[in-house]
Amino acid sequence: MAAKVVVIEDDKDILDILKYVLDDAGYEVITAKDSSMLAYIDQLNPDIILIDEWLGADKGSYCCKTLKSTIALRHIPVVLMSAATNIENIAQSCGADAYIRKPFDIDHVTFIVGSLLGKVTNISA
Questions:
Q1: Which residues, including other chains, have CB under 8 Å from residue 13's CB and lie 6 or more apart?
Q2: Which of 49, 52, 114, 119 is 20 to 30 A from residue 101's alpha carbon, by CA?
Q3: What is the dihedral of CA 39, 44, 74, 85, to 10 degrees?
Q4: What CATH number does the domain located at 4-116 have?
Q5: Average pLDDT, stretch 101-116?
Q6: pLDDT tens string 7-61
Q7: Higher-confidence residue: 122 or 47?
Q8: What are residue 78's phi and psi, to 5 degrees?
Q9: Of 1, 49, 52, 9, whose CA–CA distance to 27 is shortest?
Q10: C-alpha 99: how far from its chain's center?
Q11: Residues 6+ away with beta carbon under 8 Å from 34
Q12: Domain regions of the chain by residue span
């Protein structure tokens, strides 16, 4: 059974690219354009969550803190994505398991996801 990846990103083009790349890498991908999906994330039972830092009214880092403070969900790896220059510090302060700096390299995305799931895929450098 394929690992389930939830991607929360408000930019449709980036969301489409991530869905395509992760689908192609063999993951089951569920997407959302805002954080409303988090209300029923426990029902989705994802293996990993990729979330954008800037989601309009919400911040991905706040959502990450909420996930990591919920006992039943804290085991799910969370990857924070952003073009913010201080994304490393933001990710660390909210308890994210990793971060992806935008603009991102597709191979880097699959490497991060694979690493956190213990399924590093072959990537071409």
A1: none
A2: 119
A3: -70
A4: 3.40.50.2300
A5: 96
A6: 999 999 999 999 999 999 999 999 999 999 999 999 999 999 999 999 988 999 9
A7: 47
A8: -120, 130
A9: 1
A10: 8
A11: 8, 10, 55, 56, 57, 58
A12: 4-116
